Amino acid sequence: MSASLTGPLAAEVIALIQHELTRTRFPHRVPVVTAEAELVRDLRCCVVDYQCLAMELDEAFCIEIPDALLDAHSAARWHTVADVIRTVAQLRAAEGAPPPLTSPLGEPA
């Protein structure tokens, strides 16, 4: 399955990542988040950021992010925002997840 990196789901995932990083890492500025951005190099994500993002994605999209995607020593670990978008799309399709009750930013959907 190929997830669109420009569709509505991608926009929701990007907004969630941007919101979470603004809240936790960059409170005085909004980071530029694109599908091509590398989580570690461009967005300065650390292990804790990966865990926080996974929890937020789990809740926002009614999915369960596998631990292997968060492990710094795993080949499956997310490297780019596009990897995160693809994971969310694949898990939602595989789990038949219902639409989220709220938007990624906590507003009613």
Outline the structure in words.
It is a single chain. This protein has 109 residues and is mainly α. The chain is globular. 43% of the residues lie in helices and 0% in strands. The chain has 3 helices and no strands. The longest helix has 17 residues, at 8-24. The chain has a single domain (8-95), classed as Orthogonal Bundle (Non-ribosomal Peptide Synthetase Peptidyl Carrier Protein, Chain A), CATH 1.10.1200. The model has no long low-confidence stretch (mean pLDDT 84). Helix 1 (8-24) crosses helix 2 (47-61) and helix 1 (8-24) packs across helix 3 (81-95).
Concise structural overview:
Helices cover 43% and strands 0% of the residues.
- How far apart the termini lie comes to 25 Å
**CATH level-3 fold name:** Non-ribosomal Peptide Synthetase Peptidyl Carrier Protein, Chain A
Q: What class, by secondary structure content? A: mainly alpha
Q: What's the total number of strands?
A: 0
**Assigned CATH class:** Mainly Alpha
**Poorly predicted runs:** none
What is the alpha-carbon Rg in Å? 13 Å
CATH structural architecture: Orthogonal Bundle
Q: Please tell me what the overall shape is.
A: globular
What is the CATH superfamily label?
ACP-like
| SSE run | HHH
Summed up, the helix count is 3
Hey, roughly how much beta strand do the residues contain? Answer: under 5%
The biggest beta sheet reads: none
Tally the structural domains. 1
Helix content class = 40-55%
Mean pLDDT: 84
